Structures are given as C-alpha cells and as structure tokens.
C-alpha cells in the first residue's frame, strides 16, 4: 500500500448511459494480508484451477527444456491455506513438467520481503514490492522484454519499466469505487444511486434514519483501509492524463475547492466528522468481522477496490445470506453528467535476477499472469489486453460508468510522482500514521470542523509543491 501505481495503457473502456441520483429517490482479519493500494488481497468462491481464455501472450513455449526448483514468494496466505496455489501449479506443470514450484507466503509481506532482499536470497519469483523505487527495479529483477513490445499485450507496465525494459507483469487489476449492501440501500428508501458527493452523503443519512445498519464503516483500526480512498482520486478527475498533465506538467495543486483530491477527501472528512454516519468506535473496527456484518445487512457502505467484491460475496454465502446483495458503485463525482472510474493494477510479479533457474522463474511469471486464470477466479480485471471484464463489474456496464486506465507516462516524467510523493512525505498512497489521511480522519473524529480540514490541505499543498518544484524545476 505504500506506493502510487500509475497505470501504463493506451486504451479505455467506454460505456454508455448515466446514473440517476439518490436525491431523486422516492424513499425517505485471520492470516489474510492487507491489499495493495488498489486492493491486492482478494478472495473468491470461484473454481480455483481454471485457465484464462485470453491467449498466451508473452509466454515461453513449453517444450520440456526447463527444469529445476523455483520458490514463489507471495502475500496470499489464504490461497496457500485453501490449496489454490497448489492447484494452480498443476496447470503450470502440465506445460512445464520439469519445474518444481514451492510457495512461501507472508502475513507481513512488505516488511518480510524487504528484509530478505537485503541479500540475493529472496526466492525466484516475487510479488513485486510496492515500496521499491521504480529506478531500482533492474537491481533486483530480470527483464521480460521491451516496453514497446509488451505494452501492446499488457496493461499497467509503465511504472515497472526502466530504460525501455519491463521488470514486472500484472497479476490482475481492479476498478475504483464503493462497496455497498443493495438490500440495506433499498430498505433505506434509496431507489437510485448518487451522482454527486452531496447526494452520497444524503444516501448515508437515509440509511441512518430508516435502517438499523451502520451507514458507513470506516474500518479505521485496520489502517490500510483508509488508503482505499486514494484509489478514487484519478477516477474523480475523469481525466486519464490527470497525474502526468495536470499535476506534474501544469503543476496543479492537489487540494483546492472542487479538485479531485478535494472531492474525495472532502467527502471522507464529512463522513468521518458525522458520528451518526459511521461505527461508534472506529479505533476498534474489525476487518474480518465486517465481511459477514455487511453480508447480514449490519453495514451499508465501504470504500473498497473492486477486489473486495468477491470476498464479501463469499462471506455472504458462508453466513447463509444472498451474495447478490453485495453491490459495487463508482465514486459519485459527476463531471458534465458523467461518472468515471479508473482501473489499476494489483500486485505485479517479478523474477529474481539472481535466480539459479531464471528461465523457469520467468516462465512461471508469464504463465501465472497470462494463463493461470488467477485474476479471473479472483474477480479481478485481467492484465492481458483483450480479456473479458469480470462478472463482478457487470454493474458498471449496466450503469453507464466510463472506466478508463491512465495515459502512459512520458519518458521525462517516469518515476517523478513517486519521487515527489516519497520525498515530500505527502505520499498519497502511504499508510504511515503521520500521513495526511490519518490527520484528516483524527481531526474529523474530534469534531474539529472544516477549518482543520483546510489547514491540513494547505500543509499538504505546501509540502507537495515545494518538493515538486525542487524535483521538476
């Protein structure tokens, strides 16, 4: 969760239609690790062994020439425990029978892998550490080929390319938006989804007034959950070039009235500041417990990447509830009557350049990302261009949401956003307790009001702008 993931892709999925507004309605935790910035930790009830029907772009031909043992380091402890990873290996060995695959999963993946990477012994295949600076990728990982060639086959490569070479492939991706219980919203008298942030807060008020559900569950105690709000910012801009053009080239402030950052975090502040709209004690929230609670209609709404849909649907099944009650909506920041959402990559996967079986390690990465079916089974967007959208996002099509990926970063700006973010300590994707998101939340919980929010925004702008101008000139 530590790093902003700027997606590299040139296409957009355009979907027609519009959303009706809420204000027009008639009604009155186990060993599973936390996700990446856009929600890396997912769970699905789907068949765990299926292969994607998306071709084998970029895959090494399986001719039996590869052999040896490779170790795969990953964050999906749940998928080790339920046998998914072992099941997937059967598909890999059908193609590469001479390669033995071993898995090692970590509950505290980021810290544990960072420790291992102080030596050359960090497995053969690695879920690419998100805190690693882009420029450092060649120091640890092997290239899969040129960006010019691979970007025609894969999404989200730009932030994992250095000097025209690609050092990681996407395991899958998510869309940005809001998880909600359809039945709770209907019981509250809400017949249409919101198209503005004010309408969204009105809808939460209707849940408070007309149901027994907690309108919005902050999940604040988990820490990483507040970072999910950052995934809404680019979508709230409606602009695939928001980062590269507006923030880095035009040097637009992060925060000003009506900016994408203000739309997202101003909404967070208003929700968190109203004790009637969220759980009684945000410091004692329970990530694992919130899944069945939402399924049972005890929680109405949560900001989460689309990766969470399948987890909450599975929780509904386990609780004897209807999984179809778990819905997903875009963040309602209407721009000229249109709602947008941005897709982003989940964890990427890399091959240790020091591996004794490097060819086998690279073949595993290419197979896992293209042919294993892992992304599809987890309800994620495939990183392979041309693959079908997951069923969990079918509502976006129905609701007319325009889903896009960000424009590729110009060569002169590659890595600059991350450099500014880390150096300024603003770090929009950061989860340190000193981060501005936590300062806003704490100020809201204490009832400090809009002046406190604006003061924090001013501090963020000052730190960001000074560092940006120092780095970019």
Give a quick summary of the entry.
With 473 residues, the chain is of the alpha/beta class. The chain is built from 18 helices and 16 strands.
Descriptive overview:
With 473 residues, the protein is an alpha/beta fold. The chain has helices at 77-81, 84-95, 109-116, 137-140, 147-150, 182-187, 197-210, 233-237, 242-249, 260-273, 287-295, 308-318, 358-370, 374-377, 394-399, 416-424, 436-445, 450-472; strands at 12-13, 68-74, 99-105, 125-127, 145-146, 161-162, 165-166, 169-170, 173-175, 178-181, 214-216, 299-303, 326-329, 340-345, 348-351, 402-404. The strands form 4 sheets. Strands 3-2-4-15-8 form a 5-stranded mixed β-sheet, with helices on one face. A 4-stranded mixed β-sheet has the order 1-16-14-9. The protein has a 4-stranded mixed β-sheet with strand order 11-12-10-13. The two termini are 28 Å apart.
């Amino acid at each position: 969760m530590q790093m902003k993931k700027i997606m590299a892709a040139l296409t957009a999925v355009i979907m027609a239609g519009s959303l009706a507004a809420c204000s027009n309605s008639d009604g009155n935790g186990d060993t599973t690790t936390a996700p990446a910035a856009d929600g890396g930790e997912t769970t699905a009830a789907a068949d765990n062994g299926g292969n994607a029907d998306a071709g084998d772009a970029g895959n090494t031909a399986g001719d039996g020439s590869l052999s040896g043992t490779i170790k795969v380091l990953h964050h999906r402890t749940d998928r080790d425990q339920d046998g998914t990873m072992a099941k997937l290996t059967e598909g890999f060995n059908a193609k590469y029978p001479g390669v033995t695959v071993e898995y090692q999963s970590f509950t505290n993946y980021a810290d544990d892998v960072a420790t291992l990477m102080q030596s050359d012994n960090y497995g053969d295949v690695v879920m690419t550490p998100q805190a690693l600076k882009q420029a450092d990728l060649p120091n640890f990982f092997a290239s899969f080929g040129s960006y010019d060639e691979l970007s025609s086959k894969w999404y989200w490569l730009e932030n994992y390319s250095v000097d025209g070479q690609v050092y990681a492939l996407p395991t899958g991706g998510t869309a940005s938006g809001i998880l909600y219980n359809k039945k709770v919203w209907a019981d509250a008298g809400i017949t249409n989804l919101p198209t503005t942030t004010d309408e969204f807060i009105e809808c939460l008020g209707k849940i408070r007034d007309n149901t027994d559900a907690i309108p919005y569950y902050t999940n604040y105690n988990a820490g990483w959950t507040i970072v999910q709000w950052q995934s809404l910012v680019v979508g709230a801009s409606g602009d695939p070039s928001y980062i590269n053009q507006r923030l880095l080239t035009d040097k637009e402030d992060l925060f000003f009235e009506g900016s994408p950052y203000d739309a997202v975090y101003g909404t967070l502040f208003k929700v968190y500041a109203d004790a009637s709209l969220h759980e009684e004690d945000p410091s004692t929230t329970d990530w694992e417990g919130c899944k069945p609670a939402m399924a049972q209609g005890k929680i109405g709404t949560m900001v989460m990447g689309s990766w969470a849909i399948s987890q909450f649907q599975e929780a509904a099944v386990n609780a004897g509830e209807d999984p179809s009650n778990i819905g997903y909506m875009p963040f309602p920041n209407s721009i000229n009557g249109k709602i947008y959402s941005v897709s982003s990559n989940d964890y990427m996967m890399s091959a240790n350049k020091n591996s004794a079986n490097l060819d086998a390690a690279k073949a595993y990465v290419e197979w896992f990302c293209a042919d294993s079916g892992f992304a599809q089974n987890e309800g994620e967007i495939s990183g392979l261009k041309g693959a079908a959208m997951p069923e969990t996002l079918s509502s976006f099509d129905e609701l007319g949401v325009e889903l896009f990926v960000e424009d590729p970063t110009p060569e002169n700006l590659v890595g600059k956003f991350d450099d500014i973010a880390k150096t300024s300590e603003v770090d929009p994707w950061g989860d340190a307790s000193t981060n501005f998101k936590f300062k806003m939340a704490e100020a809201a919980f204490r009832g400090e009001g809009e002046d406190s929010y604006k003061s924090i925004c001013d501090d963020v702008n000052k730190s960001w702008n000074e560092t940006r101008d120092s780095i970019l000139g």
